Amino acid sequence: PLAAGAQRIAAELGRNTSVEVVVLEGYGQPAPPPPAVLVTTRGSVLDAPPGPVGAVVLPDMDGALRRPTLDAAEDALRLACAVAGWTVHGRTHRDHRRVVVQTREPTHHAVAALAAWDPEAFWAAEVEVRAPLRFPPVAHAIRITAPVASAPDGLGQLLRDAVPDADDVLGPLADAGRVGFLVKCADRDATLAALAPVRRDAARRGDDLRVDVDPVDAW
User: Fold this and answer.
1) pTM score above 0.85
2) What is the pLDDT of residue 218?
3) H or E stretch including 84?
4) CA gap 103, 55 in Å, rounded
5) What is the C-alpha R_g of the chain?
6) Which of 82, 93, 115, 126 has the fewest C-beta atoms under 10 angstroms from its C-beta?
7) Mapped to the 3 state alphabet, what secondary structure does 99-168 carry?
8) Helix, strand, or coil here: 77?
9) pLDDT at 76 over 50
10) Mind listing the pLDDT tens digit for each residue in 29-51?
11) Using alpha carbons only, what angle is made at residue 125 by residues 122 and 131, rounded to the nearest 5 degrees?
12) Are the C-beta atoms of 183 and 139 separated by less than 8 Å?
């Protein structure tokens, strides 16, 4: 899922199978005719299966689950379900379907939801994980970033003074030349309205202040 070691996996498979093994890297690459083994990276997952699929193997699903993003688990499950669904394409016999997941955390709620094909159970568990941290969908998250070189002095305190008292302001964290803050709030409209003067002042100064509502990445 993270495109790490795709060529190595293909080389190992090629030494142990008599059919063609192809690595698909990049979007829109054509798949070879069956029988074949396709090693796909995240960006090369096909919109539809290339034909009857006898088995799907998801190596290192843990890597996808541990990505440092707010939606890592749901995104991993979404991708896994999409690819696992290929096994029903062109198949008439249930015994021929195989989905294999490599994981050190078989009890992780995303892995369990995939095994049971039960996304509702995933969300019931995911909400419990996010609730103590006040992450979506329990609350809203707003990420505010500005270039380190031109960020207003005391931007963090400026944001804390502007937003409602119940909001949490986390930061600063500098990354790729920008300084960022994460605001967690219950009333998104009220927080955005409170931030409007800060945004207007930044626009008048020509500062590149960016506001990302419910971001996928925290920073």
Assistant:
1) no
2) 62
3) helix 72-84
4) 17
5) 22
6) 93
7) EEECCCCCCCHHHHHHHHCCHHHHHHHHHHHHHHHCCCCCCEEEEEEEECCCCCCCHHHHHHHHCCCCCE
8) helix
9) yes
10) 788 888 999 998 877 777 778 78
11) 130
12) no
